Here is the input.
Amino acid sequence: MTDNPYPQPAAADIRLTDILHALSDPGRVKMVQVLADGGYHACNVDEFGLDITKSTLSHHFKTLREAGLTTIKVNGRNMWIALREEELEDRFPGLIAGVTSAEARNDLQKGADYGTADAEAGAPAAAEAEASDAAAAASEGGAATEAGTGSAR
Here is the structure.
């Protein structure tokens, strides 16, 4: 039995499918981007700029660790997390560079700004835009039906 309460796979046992699954969540991608600076980070919500609960953050830590992306260091009651950059680069060259590139960061911003305060503030505006688009489509459909060019169904 291991003394480490937070086991992680050996570098040779890291599977690409597990990594891709872990990176399928935008919040975890953002966490990897923060961790890519090469240092250890405190395991707290503020460190990653995500507007999520502690339990969700813990789930993300576990998913990243079990996929082999991160390692945990315990110092008393404090836990620190770091990206296993060297091991990942040896096993899957270019993977982390691709996930942390400027293009990947921009793509993440264009998608859902998962868990950020900006996303929460932008949610009402996005909902209003969708409602406006739906209303416009409905009125266009209604006008076409009235003109006899569309079907009533």
Observations:
- The chain has two domains: 11-114, 116-145.
- Strands lie at 41-42, 70-75, 78-83.
- Confidence is low (pLDDT under 50) at residues 117-127, 142-153.
